[in-house]
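Hello forum,

I keep getting stuck at the same step: I have a sequence, I want structure tokens, and every attempt I make locally crashes halfway through. Rather than fight my setup again tonight, could one of you with a working pipeline run this one for me? It's a single chain of 133 residues.
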Amino acid sequence: MQSILGNTRKTDLTFRLNGQIDITARVANMLAIQKGDVIDVMADHHGIGELYLYVKLKAPSVGRHKAACFPSHFPARHFRAWSKKLCQYIIRASDSSLDKLELGVGEPVQLPGVGTALPIIYRHILNNDDTRN
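Reply #2:
Ran it on my machine without issues. Output:
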């Protein structure tokens, strides 16, 4: 016998090789993301281990920025950002050969100098179609 659903966890973030980052309303609410906010990913001191998603700059910010968030569907709270560098880093860190990673996040934490951040669960890819879990 084999489970049809496999993993039932819903995704929170989607990183695509072309640089597109999709952010669910759940994540946007936890980080209080608004139109024009700039997101970033912080790695631990050694570049391995935990990765954290956080808001680097709050809108309004002067100039154009990579990874600026904009609503992807009005009036919903889904957001989209673009950063090929962030996407390639996440895909490489997860040791994946996929062009699109669907990932979850953990509970919000407070990081010194950053504020609220969400740990990215990047070692458990939700769209790998592995139903053996």
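The chain has a mean pLDDT of 87. If your local run keeps crashing, start a new thread with the error log.
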